[in-house]
Write a structure and sequence with these properties.
This protein has about 220 residues and is an alpha/beta fold. Helices cover about 50% and strands about 15% of the residues.
């Protein structure tokens, strides 16, 4: 059975790092909104050209354009055995469209990484990013392990901006959680633990969701 996974979680929850780990473990692509937007624009696809014009005007990319870009990406060969979505869906309309896109591809597993706001603020005010490749680095590191670039703090990683971003995230994401949370394939994971413990709990959540979604007598 393919692994079709959505990762939900606020900024600073570590969902990007965990999504990459799961993608490597299951040999499926990790697909993030920013990456597929840039890829669609670079490749000059019809929806990519449309998105480019919208972004150049500084406007918000509407649901129908994002849905089209995600549909294009999920149609690619490497996503046929499954995928990990990070940053999509962001609205209930996008979630409903995704249900239609993957309806014939097996169950959709949704995992929310939950971290208290105080811990998110602490993490984001102490984290650094690589000036060269943009990789986010935790406290204590002195250089980027990916490219060796210099580490700097993001200009928007200050407490007032972070708290406003978290407020907006929770306002926009709560309807999404409500949309998914009654499904047998929805799980919440405590993201306040050490990364390896979070990884173990994520894998256990995936297994239990998979087992709950599989028809009786079916095997993965």
């Amino acid at each position: 059975m393919p692994l079709n996974l959505i990762m939900l979680g606020p900024p600073g929850a570590g969902k990007g790092t965990q999504a990459e780990h799961i993608a490597r473990t299951h040999a499926i692509p990790k697909i993030s909104t920013g990456d597929i937007l840039r890829e669609a624009v670079q490749n000059g696809t019809p929806v990519g050209r449309l998105a480019k014009g919208i972004m150049e005007r500084g406007d918000f990319v509407p649901d129908d354009v994002m849905i089209g870009i995600v549909r294009e990406r999920l149609d690619q060969r490497d996503a046929q055995a499954g995928f990990v979505l990070d940053g999509f869906p962001r609205t209930v309309a996008q979630a409903a469209a995704l249900d239609n896109i993957v309806s014939a591809r097996g169950p959709l597993i949704v995992i929310e990484i939950v971290v208290p706001e105080a811990e998110l603020v602490r993490r984001m005010t102490t984290r650094l990013v690589c000036e060269g490749c943009g990789t986010t680095i935790g406290p204590g590191e002195t250089s980027c392990g990916r490219c060796g670039g210099r580490l700097v703090q993001r200009s928007d990683d200050n407490e007032p901006v972070i708290r406003e971003r978290l407020k907006v995230y929770h306002e926009r994401t709560r309807p999404l959680v409500e949309y998914y949370q009654l499904r047998p394939t929805f799980r919440s994971v405590n993201g306040s633990q050490p990364p390896d413990r979070v990884s173990a709990d994520l894998l256990a959540a995936i297994e239990s969701s998979w087992d709950g979604a599989a028809p009786k007598g079916a095997h993965r």
